[in-house]
């Protein structure tokens, strides 16, 4: 009887999980004259396309996706269109909602790669009703349409002010992009204010400290204002109110403050981190749900050589994976490989990511690349010298392989012997 690996999500981690699983299955079939049974690899997602989320701060955002139908067809991955509503861990089943029609699929191994969403604090009145965002394609498209419509609105301080709520990775890339983008759209660059509001005492609190002076220097050159130690306490149709009592008139508040794992993680037993991510072992398996693996924004894995039996005791957060495509893609490769290996009776591979780095986009002509992780990271490239690297990552590295080359497509799922190139911390 055939077995099935179900992958929830078609993002970076989900796609790489599917390719890795099919790769190992195909290799095993070629080496085994009489395979015991078939293993189906099925991806469940709302659409058969990869949304290139690291680029949703850019213009022409509607084009920031890559089709997956032909790639799945070439590699033999089954695509199931719909959203997973529930996971029955005991019975090893998922419930899928496809345009209101519900069905149940059984799995032998499940890989949860459902991504994450912006944090929306309940204590901020008007947040859901009045903010824009770039965490999903539809919301980014809505923001771009709003920006393009600004010239048709009567000139006021609210029209000419954009407030980026959150000075983390995504907020900084967006804020640095906006001055040039608004000038191109509106033609009133001199009258436009871009303000970043960050509740931490530093800009980019998750960035390596070596990067922050260069970030502030570039933002200052671009005319972007930064307000630190400040939180958003209220948002309405005409502006935002801050914890300092200041009211800033704006028609364009953009919420970028933080990410949490998809709610499906709550249906799987086991420890979670403060972002709701499943704490997984060195093979990316959920310790309390042995048939389930997790990758990408739904998983928190060790990047060091820590004790598998003591996942929560680490020297620093730098030893954990970040919610970024830098980690999502290799995690997907390992999760897919290990889920297939488990069914094939093969040894699992220990997740490993030996090289880490951060690449931050800072507008038309600037970027920063720091090699390493945490405060040990050192700036290696900055300004125009770093821009080609960021462009290559955004426009080439993170895109899916071509569908016309089966061997090459499957090799993209190989978790070992890969050249590791640093991708953005906020990818």
TrEMBL record:
Residues 4-329 form the FAD/NAD(P)-binding domain. The keyword Nuclease does not apply. It comes from the Eukaryota. Keywords: FAD, Flavoprotein, Oxidoreductase. Its cofactor is FAD. Belongs to the NADH dehydrogenase family. This is FAD/NAD(P)-binding domain-containing protein. It comes from Apiospora aurea. The lineage of its organism: Eukaryota, Fungi, Dikarya, Ascomycota, Pezizomycotina.
